[in-house]
Amino acid sequence: xxxxxxxxxxxxxxxGNRRDPAVVLLHGAGxxxxxxxxxxxxxxxxLYVIAPDxxxxxxxxxxxxxxxxxxxxxxxxxxLLDELRIDEVALVGASLGGITALTLAxxxxxxxxxxxxxxxxxxxxxxxxxxxxxxxxxxxxxASVQESADVLTxxxxxxxxxxxxxxxxxxxxxxxxxxxxxxxxxxRQVAIRDAGGEVVPDGVGDPLLVDFDEDARxxxxxxxxxxxxxxxxxxxxxxxxxxxxxxxxxxxxxEGAGHLVINDKPSASLDQVAGFLREVGWGTYA
Length: 286
Description:
The chain is of the alpha/beta class. Helices cover 36% and strands 19% of the residues.
C-alpha cells in the first residue's frame, strides 16, 4: 500500500481486518516492513497489523530537508496513523523502530496503549555499534544479489545461508548494474566519511538516544523489552536499567538471538509478542 503524506510517499504493509484493534510493527535501521512478515500473519488473526517502511527506507521517501531525529521519525508514524484514522494502537519496534516507538508513546500517551521494544535500551554497547557502522560503510553496493546474501550470512553468522530471493524487496539495481539497499544509511554515512566527518550509525547512535532515559521515565503504558540473548548492541544491564526507569515494564530474553531478534528467532518472538498483547488485553482472540 502507498499513501502520500504531505509531499512524502509512504509505503506500508497491512494484514487483517481494519475493524480490529491495531498493532504497528516498526523495523530497524537498514530493514524494511517485510522484516515482519512471519510475525504479522499470525497476529492478523485477531489484530489489524500495519508495518510501514520508515522514512528513507524501503519504498518510503526520505524527509525532504534531510532531517533525521527520533522525534521526526515518531511524528511520521503519528501522521500515518492520522491518515488511517487509528486513534489507539499497540506498537512493536525493533532497534531504530523501538526508539521511534518509545518516542511516539511519550508524545501521544493516549494513543499508544501498549509497547514492545525489541533489543532497545537507553545506551548501546560501543563495540556492537561500531561493528554496525562498519557493516553499513562496507556494504553500500553489491555486484549481485547473491553477493549481498553471502555478506549477510557471514556478517550475522547465520547457520543457514540467507536466500538471495528473499532480498529482492530490500534491494534496487542502479543504472550501472550494481545493487544497493533500499535505505539511505550507507550512502549518508559514506558521504560523511568522504567529507572527513565523524560517522555515527543511524538508528543506534548516541544522537538518537539523547534524553531517551528521561522519556522512558514518562511512559505510562505497559511495556515489554525483548532482548536478544547474544545481542552485541543491547547488554543485559542496559535492558534491566531501562526497565527500571519505567513504571510498568519487564524484560524477556530470547535465547540464541542476536540484535535481529525477530529475524533470528521468529517463533519465540511471536510467542512473546502475542502473549504480552493478550496479557494486557489488546484485541479480541479465541
